[in-house]
Task: inverse folding
């Protein structure tokens, strides 16, 4: 007796596409490494990183001090100045881009 897949070709393609997107999302949202530690990268964390990197950029452009204590993926914390926070934002962008390139 042999197994027969009764799904249509369109159903098979749709199922494969859902699996691919789920794997992509898991990779994108699973975190990313920086010299400062491993950061979360789920959608809420991405929004927070973008906001903090923008604040850091504004402070740097104005010559104002900036520092923020950030909780990393392992729940440890790190203090970041403006260049470091901007670097984290750039690292996140590179992480997301590399996931989507795959």
Result:
């Amino acid at each position: 007796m042999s197994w027969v897949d009764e799904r249509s070709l369109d159903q098979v393609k749709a199922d494969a596409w859902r699996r691919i997107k789920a794997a992509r999302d898991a990779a994108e949202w699973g975190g990313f490494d920086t010299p400062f530690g491993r950061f979360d990268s789920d959608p809420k964390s991405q929004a927070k990183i973008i906001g903090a990197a923008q604040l850091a950029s504004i402070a740097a452009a104005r010559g104002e001090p900036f520092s923020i204590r950030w909780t990393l993926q392992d729940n440890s914390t790190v203090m970041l100045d403006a260049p470091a926070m901007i670097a984290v934002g750039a690292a996140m962008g590179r992480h997301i881009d590399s996931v989507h390139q795959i």
About this structure: Residues 9-29 form the longest helix (21 residues). The chain has a mean pLDDT of 96.
